Amino acid sequence: MALNISGLVALVVFYVTTLAIGIWASWKSKKQKSNKPTEVAMVGGRSINFCIGLFTATATWVGGAYINGTAEIVYLPSRGLVWVQAPVGFALALLVGGLFFVNPMRSKNYLTMMDPIQEAYGNVMGTLLFIPPLIADIFWFAAVLASLAATMKVILDIQGYLAIIISACTVIIYTLLGGLYSVAYTDVIQLVFLMVSLWFCIPFAMMNSATESIPYTAVHDSFQTPWLGNLDVQFVGRWLDDFLYLVLGGIAWQTYFQRVLSASSSKQARVISYLSGVGCFVMAIPAVLIGAVAASTDWNQTNYGLPTPNDRGESALILPLVLHHLCPPYVSIGGLGAIAAAVMSSGDSALLSASSMFAHNIYRKVLRKQATEKDVLKAMRVSMVVFGTVAAALAFYSNSIYDLWFLGGELVYALLFPQLCCVLFIPHTNTYGSAAGFFFGFLLRLLAGEPTLKIPPILRYPGCTLVDGVYIQLFPYKLVTMLSTLLAIVSVSYLAAFLFKRNILPRRWDVCKIIKENQVIISLSQREKSDACTEDGEL
Q1: What's the rounded Cα separation, in Å, for the pair 352 and 139?
Q2: 3-state SS record for 76-107
Q3: Which domain holds residue 124?
Q4: Considering 383, 409, 435, which residue would you say is the last residue of a domain?
Q5: What is the pTM of this model?
Q6: How many domains are there within the chain?
Q7: What is the dihedral of CA 162, 168, 172, 173, to 10 degrees?
C-alpha cells in the first residue's frame, strides 16, 4: 500500500484550519475584559453562547473512542448492537446531570467539580480525590489519540506515532492559547465536520457489492452471526453493571461540569445538558450503521481478503477498514477527517479538564496559596503540556481502544461519584468518611481484578467465570463498589461525629477538625439544660 498523498494534504488542511480557529478564539477570549483571567480560561467567563455551549457539550462526549468503539461492538460476533450501551448511557447521564447536579453546582459559581469536595473535606482529601479524574482524563485523551493513529495507519499508510504526535501537539497548542474559548469554537467545526463526513460515507459503504442488506443480516446468519447480537441470561448482571456505570459514572467528569458551569445561567446549563444528551445519541447512529455494514460484508470480495478483521484481531480498526475498503478514496479521506475531528473535540476537553483542576484546586489551594492569577494561568499551561505528553505516550501502548476508553472512568465512578453525591445531597458527611470511602472503594475495586491490566480477581463475586484463562466478573461488582464507597462515607462520617461529640473519643484526636468550637459550646449548653430539666423533674 502506497502513501495516500491527497489524503495527507487534505488532513493537513483540516489541521491547519482547526488550529487557525483555535488561535482566533484565543484572540477573542483575550478581548473579554475580566479581573479573573483564570475564570475566562476555565469556564469562558460564564458567558458562552447557548449554541456554542450545546455544540461543545455534545462534542466532548462524541470522541474518536466513542465512534470507533461503537462500530467495533456492533461488528463483534460475540457482542452486537445489544451491547452498545454508550449512546443511551451517556444520554441518560446528561439527563440525570441536568436534573440533579447542575443547579447546586452552577448556583454557587464553582470553577471545577472539585470545589465543593475541597470545601467539605479539605485540601488533603481534595488532592487525593483529584487523582481519579486526572487518570480518567489522561486515559480518555490517550484513547482518542490511539483511535486516530489506527485510522490514519489504515487509510493513509503512515506510522501511528506520527498521527499521535501531530494530533497531540495541535490540541495542546490551541487549548493552551485560548482555554475554553478555543475548545468551544473548534468543537463547533469539528462536530459539524464529523456529522457530515460520516453520514456521507454511509451510502457508499452500504451499496458496495460485497455488502449484504443490513436489515437482513440483523436477524439472519450471513457472513457472521446477526449484528443485533444477543444477551444471554448469565450476562444480564454484567450488562446492567456496565450500563449503570455509563449513566452514573458519566456525571462526575470535569469535562461535563466545565460546560454547564460556563453557561450564563442555571436554566441555560440544564437545557444544554438535556439537548447534548440527545446529540450524543444521534451522533452514534452512523457508527452503528458502519458496524452493521462490517458485519454484513464478505471481506473476501474486498482488497482486505480473508481472514476477517475479527479473526485477525483487528476488530478495533473496523471503522477505518470499512471506510478504506468499502468506500471510494475521496470518501474515506472525508471519514478520516471525521475521526480527526472527533479526536480533537474530546482530546482538548480532557486536557482542559485535567489542567483546570490541577491549576485551581491543587496549585492555587494547596501548593501555592498566595499565587496570583498569572501564576495560576502559567501552572495551567505547563500542566497541559505535561498531561498531553503523558497521554500521547500512553496512546502508543493501547491494545484495545474500547477497553482503554471504558476503563478510564471506572475509578471516577467507584471513588469520586459517591463523594460528589455526598457533598451535594447528604448533609454532615465529613473528612473521616470521605477518606474511609476512598480507601475502602479502591480496595474493593482492586480485589475484583482487571483483565485489561492482567490483574487476577482475589474477591470473586457470584458468577465469576474463567473464560480462555481469564476470570470474568459477571456480578454487578462496579455498582457494589460504588454503593460500598457511598455507604462507607456516610456511616464513618456519622460514627466519627457521634464519637467526638459525645466525648467517647478525645477531641484532641480530631485532627480533621470536624467538631467546631461553636458546635461544642452549643452541645454543652444543650446538655446543661437537659440536666437541669432532669433535676427539676426529680424535685
Answers
A1: 14
A2: CCCCCHHHCCHHHHHHHHHHHHHHHHHHHHHC
A3: 48-409
A4: 409
A5: 0.90
A6: 2
A7: 30
